[in-house]
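Bug #2210: token dump truncated for DUF805 domain-containing protein?
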Amino acid sequence: MISFWQAFKNYWRRGVDFRGKSTRAEYWWMVLWAVLFSVILLGGLAISMFLWTSNHGIGQIETLIFKNIIYFLILTIVISVILIIPTTALTVRRLRDTGFKTWLIWVLILLNYVFNRMELQWHNWWQILLSLLSLLISLIMFLGLVMKSDSLRLGRIKAQPEQVKVETLYPIQVKTEELTMDTQDN
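Reproduced locally. Full output below:
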């Protein structure tokens, strides 16, 4: 099994590698890295806001919130742009490892991206349908990410090796054939 640190190294080494496969452990270790990084980032935001209020008082809280949120948003955008390609590559490799076809992976990723960026309100039947489709696509991707390696390949027919015809000869048949061969040689 891949280690926590090895998963981090593979994430950056194979950051633009959309071919091949990635194990379940490699994917979920990177999810844990992302969660830890987000907690640290949000913790830093909370600590900076606390330190600002303790030094400048509560009267300037609006300035503090605005200033810190702007810095936080800029930092989040920069980090997201840096991480989008390696994260997409890791997701493609992980879904391929479970048995998804490459074209299906890209369709799911693109539809998931498009549907999750839409701000749908449930006023019309087609908005409800699109919301449910978005949920279904996200569920399919999540199930693909948690499956074991080659889970979807189990039911496929594999090429059969050439069949070898095996005949069982009984001692009486062997003797008969030997006798027949001897009489033909004379």
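Output looks complete on our side. Helices lie at 4-13, 24-56, 61-98, 102-117, 125-146, 171-185. Marking as cannot-reproduce; reopen if the truncation happens again.
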